[in-house]
Amino acid sequence: MTGRFALVVATYAFNDPGLRQLTAPVHDAEAFAEVLADPAIGGFEVTTLINQPHHVVGAAIGDFFSDRLRDDLTLLYFSGHGLKDDAGKLYLAMTDTRTLTPLFTSVAADQIDYAMTGCHSNHQVLILDCCYSGAFPAGTIAKADDQVHALETFSGRGRTVLTASDATQFAFEGETPHGQATQSVFTRHLVAGLRDGGADLDQDGDITVDELYSYVHDHVVAERPRQRPKKQDNIEGRTVLARNRNWQVPQHIRTALESPAVRDRRNALEDLDQLHRTGGAIVRSRIHDAITRLVNDDSRAIAAAAASWLDSHPTGTPTSSAGGGTGAAMKPDPHPVSEAIPATAPARTNDAAQHEDSPAKDQAPPDPCHEGEDEDAGTTEPAALFGEPEPSPRPEHEAIRHSDGRFRSRLRDRKWAIPTAAAAVAMACVVAVGGWHIAGNGVAGHPIADEKALRGPDVDLLKLIASTGYHRNTCNHVNPAPGQVAQIACRANKAASVPLAAFIRFTNIDKLTDFYQTTSRIMQTASCPGDPPGPDAPVFDDLHRVVGRKTCAVDPTTNPASSTLIVTDEPDLAIAQFIYRPTDWTSPVAEQLRNYKAARGDRQFLPVDEAHDPDEFTSADKDLLSHLSSEFTRTNCRHEDPRQPADAEIACGTPVGYPTASFVEFPTAADATVGYQSALRLGSGHACDGRPGQDSLQTRNDLPIGRFTCILSAGDTVHPDDHRPCLLSVLDSPHIARGFCASAAGAPQPAIATDSDLLAWFQKWAG
Fold this sequence. Notes:
By secondary structure, this protein is of the alpha+beta class.
């Protein structure tokens, strides 16, 4: 039988006068152990050690990691002093630790790493809430830097490591005088996120380690900007740490349930059904109550569907979680259904539950291209609400549904080339109802384990896409038509200003050309704004060679009308269709975005030798991202190969009204300064506010934290005259250079176009 085990260690009293006495750890340990052991929250079997000598804690850690099963979830938490010797080795201080001989009187990080490596569990969580200091005699020079490198120390397969901070001389008790704080800011938010359910960011009833870290990181940084919690993981799937005991039906579903539109209430029922399949006891109980209230709905179809659902889901009937995973047998649960919390589970998707209930092979599934529109006319069978092979399209996919209707009618009227057009119609039907139903709640970098998961050819196609903002968790597989290698559909990403899109790769140039020409005729496309009159215009590469064609259209059958851009790339046998909907960006911004992208003439696909999976981030990239604000994440940033001596470099797509952004992290402050000064000289840097000098001092709370300058971008081979204003800043700690450039001429809502605009935005953004 698999289980959930936690060892909570806290030390606040020390014999060595070189280690100051603490008060926070005991309170941290008590509060954290309480929520972990709570059967309605964590359901862990918890062992707590307070103020013990190093040999007792060492033996307990050894026992803790021994005799574990593969699917057990193990969690080791430590609060107290961390010590780093002059060679860079890390130790955890116990009551009998001596600062001058930590090797023999403390618990070495190497020992913990060894115990974790020998443990059979594939799901290990390590949480360190330490204040760190140097364990070497005064007056000596440490051989290592001022970072603890705890993540690197405990890196290993099947592990997730969370740390409150990674810098020495960091007092985790904040501004309170030493020895008087009752709880550290890091653990306080750990406990709060679990206890009140605030860390359940996707509102599915589960609190995963990733969600808990994101919640804690944001709250800690908001309270103490100079403290940066960090995370490192090397584990497959989701690690479910706790249940949200305060879970309520999400607000968007409650709103839909109260909507006068039958379609909205039907969609809400489907959402509730899926949450019931994937949620825990609390989620299922409250969903059961919500659906019970719909038995008296004004719509006969909704009322019948609710009654049918309740007949098949009686109160107290366990439902197997679509998340799978393992967990310990829980203690008595005060909620209607008691169950084990799954320790790990694959990433959930919006269509996984639908797939489970798809019709048997001998049944004829409903034609998704001819769905009825009158849900309340008595023609819809109640079971159909939950038994369709694909969920009803959401409003954001209506543009594609209407496009399909126009696609089909024009083919009938004009009777164009039947073989090619028939293939196009088949593709459009798949895209309209099935392919464009984007799977949600994916994990960036990990394909979703269902029929919409990206296959190898899909990932190869995704690597070619030049736009920042399309990732594995925002794109899904669509079955390719004959003559196609791969086809993927990606939802809009407003954080990166990229629209709803479809990408297709073909077996040969003839298939690509036939598809492009047929689609252009059916959609009645024409040259894009700014291009010469005609059906389309060429696309050039960096050497000004023609690599494809581009054409534009406005679909008047959608409400509101959507602007479309179609771009081909012949060397890579690929085509992209971008759909700018006013529902994503306030009209006329959607059309302006389409026109701006078309006018730039950028190649939409990268050459094969430059292709890179947008979800591949190095550990250095992740460290760099952890220092950035919430506007820049893995969903709108992409790895770049760093140039020496930099450790990491990322480029980020940004929302409308933001400057473009890039970030570079250096190993030392000296390296960062050299890189900054080189860019300052090459770019003829000048003070952004017009004052004399090449740059300005950046301060926070009247203390210097770095420097910044304004320069002109050098342009590129496609746009050599694109000399946009840019602001470059460098921080003393962490050692990060940040570059922000104004939008090019013609960009929608170019709120940032000058040095003064950049300066005003930067001062507001950087505080």
